[in-house]
Design goal:
By secondary structure, this protein is of the alpha+beta class. The chain has four helices and two strands.
């Protein structure tokens, strides 16, 4: 089943804040189209699809950020341990009475 829809141009802060609209012609498996039709009103499909796409994009961006941060932490691990070791005596100073 082929559905013609309008997807609001994605903007930081919200996908519905823009007045720029792009028309797309997409092809969906029949089962997906039937589920979409049963879950949305006929004039609300574009909004539903745009929201689903934005959620997926945000999830992928969050996953990429988490991966990049993890790689960065791993890359600087040895340096962080060395700095921590260097200041260990200063950190423990004054704790002997506890």
């Amino acid at each position: 089943m082929c559905i013609i829809l309008c997807i609001v141009k994605l903007m930081k802060g919200g996908y519905l804040m823009s007045t720029d609209i792009v028309r797309l012609n997409i092809t969906l498996p029949k089962e997906v189209a039937e589920s979409l039709n049963s879950m949305t009103e006929p004039r609300k499909r574009s909004h539903f699809i745009a929201k689903a796409i934005v959620e997926r994009i945000e999830r992928r961006q969050r996953e990429k950020l988490e991966k990049d941060l993890e790689e960065g932490y791993r890359a600087t691990r040895q340096e962080a341990l060395a700095v921590s070791k260097e200041f260990e005596t200063a950190d423990l100073e004054g704790w002997d009475e506890y």
